[in-house]
Amino acid sequence: MLFFVILFACVDLLLNGRGDGTIETLIPTFTDYIFYLFAGKTKFVPMPGVYFDFPALWTLFLALCFYLTLPYPLRELTGVGKNILLRTQSRSGWYLSKCIWVICCIALVFCMLFGVAALFTLLTGGSFTDTVSARAAQIAAVDGFFTTLDTPDFGRYLLLPPLMLIALSLWQLTLSLLLRPVVSFLLSVAELLAAAFYMNRFIPGNYLMFLRAEPFETGGMNLPESCLLALGLALSAVIAGVLLFRRYDILPKE
Amino acid sequence: MAKVELCDVTKIIRKRTIIDHVSLSFPAGQVSGLRGVNGSGKTMLMRLVAGLILPTEGQVFIDGKQLHRELSFPPSIGALIENPAFLDGYSGRDNLKLLADIQGKIGEREIDEILQTVGLAGAGKKKYRRYSLGMKQRLGIAAAVMERPEIVLLDEPTNALDSEGVEMVRQLVKQEKERGAAVIIACHEWETLKLLSDVVHVIENGRITESIQREDFS
Lengths: 254, 218
Fold this sequence. Notes:
Oligomer: heterodimer
Number of helices of chain B: 6
Strand content of chain B: 25-35%
Distance between the termini of chain A: 24 Å
Helix content of chain A: 55-70%
């Protein structure tokens, strides 16, 4: 499913980038493809006649990533994991192994994403630069953004989505110990929607939207701060999870 | 000192008392049965002994060491609690090998022996997803005893087993007892417990209402 969403995003960018005589056809760079999927939405300013238009593609992709890492850990715990746990004798060890599993899952998703983006770049004759084309940024932003300038040196920002997604997925894992997994998932999705609506440094989903990053939004999310926050969230999720799991009753759950 | 000791253990889940002030000892070299209807607390008691759940009140001791304070889990335990669970895409043999490799206490010879004992010698290479319920149960029992643990927990071990399977369980439990393991069996069937146990503790609504020694079985 994730693969098809990525595919759709790449094709969508190509189709929306077609020229019409007055505008040249966009040949997206490698970074354009990634940017398009994680563009998100420009800052929403409520005004009369302006409606909130949530970023469907961005939300769908991230929700699927959250869903991907959701069911397995607790399902394994109430199945074969019981026997493994009794033999490894370590609750912390089990929990850390699941954290590593979450990280690997997200890493694989991004390998797939970069692979598909690279393939599209090759097939369409695009360039492997870390520049976001002005046209791609405008297409991604729909109505909310206008620029004639390309954005160079954006490659470093590609680090942000995997880091922040890992952090949020680890928190989802931790929260699924306290709440039912489905509730933990709904909270993750609700956080994404909140981020789309509010541009706020304290809502982590904002760091997953490239249109809210410093090069595109004045006072937007800056890279060092974003990376630090992601690492901090990830570490706190792991520590909280290990501590919680030590007191966790391993029982069959829905 | 008993191998396993529960000292005034209570377990409350979502305001419901599942285990109510239970004090029990499970010595080594003895088969202790837990008898009760569905929902009486037998499986929960086993989960407490295995360290899978934490008591709300009271303590669980394994060889004098307190669970969840000095130990996370009993150091030498084999358990079949509720339904057996293995990896569908692996064979029965490979599933056992995966588990055995964690502690490295046994090798392939012992795995083959236990498969023979539980009557799965011919089905060891078959994928677990193709196993019948009875075969899955046998594999679960094999996993619980293969490493010769000091504590053996068997929750409804004769579920889905034919008469040959029940006899296999009886022989296996006798073997484990003679080896010196503390064997705890939960079952709602009195006839099965009579066959297997040295003492039967009757549990109702989370409380031990009676403990019947073998000589007093009717």
